[in-house]
Amino acid sequence: MTAVLPTRPLAQDARWLGAGALMAFSTSFGQTFFIAIYAGAWREEFALSHGEWGAIYMVATLSSAAILTQSGRLADAFRARSVALCLYLGFALIAVMMAYVTSPLMLAFLVFGLRFCGQGMLSHLAIASMARWFRARRARAVAIASLGFSAGDAVLPAATVALIAAIGWRSSWLVVAALLALVIAPTLMILLRRERSPRSVAANTLSPGLGGAQWTRKTMLRHWLFWALLPGLIGPGWIGTVVFFQIVHLTEVKGWALIDYAGFAYPTYSACAVLASFAFGWAADRFGVVRLLPVYLLGWAAGTILMAMAQSLSAGVVALAAAGIGTGGTSIVMGALFAELYGTRWIGGIKAITAAVMVLASALGPGVSGALLDSGVTFEVQLLAMGLYLLAVSLLFVAVAARVRPLLPGAVAAM
Questions:
Q1: Are 289 and 162 in contact, with CB atoms under 8 Å apart?
Q2: Of the candidates 170, 59, 161, which has an alpha carbon nearest to the alpha carbon of residue 115?
Q3: Cα 412 to the chain's mean position, in Å?
């Protein structure tokens, strides 16, 4: 039996929800889908082969994951407002430097900065803040904040391509810098001028984890559950990154026009991700996040299998729509699960580990996929393997969820 927590309308918390969504949106400038827009220009500018560019991207992302395991704990020690301001200033500086990049080595350093600030720390800060600030409706708060991710997916690719066509790729980074420093950062400071920070939250608002305890990173890593969850942490980051990283190759193999696929599939993907995030958010708050473990990966499983078999453009759109459902489910489950399992006192440090694992998976995915392509393993075969992997993990999570549910705080209290 799950304990009933007092609630109030989420509209009363609009400033904090808006801050979460804004942080999520601003991660876009360090996400794969955004950086990939510039890949062709960078390869031409610095005479990089596909392998050399892939190596730069992989090393930059791996470095980001390594540092995130330590820097992520800043979310436990400082206000989100202060951490975000430092990140935005650094992010904007990197964007300015990107406009004047002169060598492959400098490019590698700057791509690391984009990955660390965007996909790494800001993504971590946005979701960790929602997990800490909200309790009774934590999953729905994560769903609302995740609208920022979907907005970036839906709006920025086309807008950036048009911007580059109008002013060039170098000048476009100055626009990004101005947006981060002059629009997004000040707006976030206004939203968080009165903040629910780690030091301002009363002790009785901290929600406990398994066994009614507040788990630390060390106790989490010594327990079997984290390692059982690891395949589900790896899957979405690895598979989602590979699918979008190889989207040009996929459309070439299928004989689809990239502009047509992007024009129909990406907005559909984003819309399905938004709808799924709210559906999963409601279900997580109603039934508990642990009960969703066996089902949240099924969207991506269906999407990869359908994408492997798709022949027509419309079938490809349906496949990416199914993947969008998987993305929505993943954002909720991964956003709220660890607070439910391990408590919120040390959630910043705990989620830094989980975020680093997902970033690591996203770093290795494109490199492994490219090597398999070079070895003659078609992308369709890779997609089928990804889908079967996710189905196997979902079956594993049936057993994991059944074993964990009796240990949750509400269940323990009811014994």
A1: no
A2: 59
A3: 32
The residue type found at 227 is: W
Contact 406, 400 (CB under 8 A): no
**The pTM is what?**
0.73
Q: Give the C-alpha separation, 235 to 245, whole Å.
A: 15
For residue 357, how far is the Cα from the chain centroid?
A: 11
Query: What DSSP state is assigned to residue 212?
Result: G
Contact residues for 262 (Cβ-Cβ < 8 A; gap 6+): 157, 158, 247
Helix axes 347-374, 313-342, angle to 10 degrees: 150
φ, ψ for residue 102, nearest 5 deg: -125, -5
Amino acid sitting at position 44:
E
Handedness of CA 218, 223, 229, 234 (dihedral sign): positive
Q: Which of 81, 100, 266, 61 is nearest to 186 (CA)?
A: 81
Q: What CA–CA distance (Å, rounded) separates 140 from 282? A: 6
Cβ atoms of 207 and 135 closer than 8 Å: yes
DSSP state of 1: -
Which pLDDT tens digit goes with each residue over 79-136?
A: 777 888 889 999 999 999 999 999 999 999 999 999 998 887 888 788 777 767 776 6
Are the beta carbons of 343 and 215 closer than 8 angstroms? yes
**What kind and span of H or E run contains 198?**
none
For the segment 291-318, what is each residue's pLDDT rounded down to a tens digit?
999 999 999 999 999 999 999 999 999 9
CA distance 27 to 64: 14
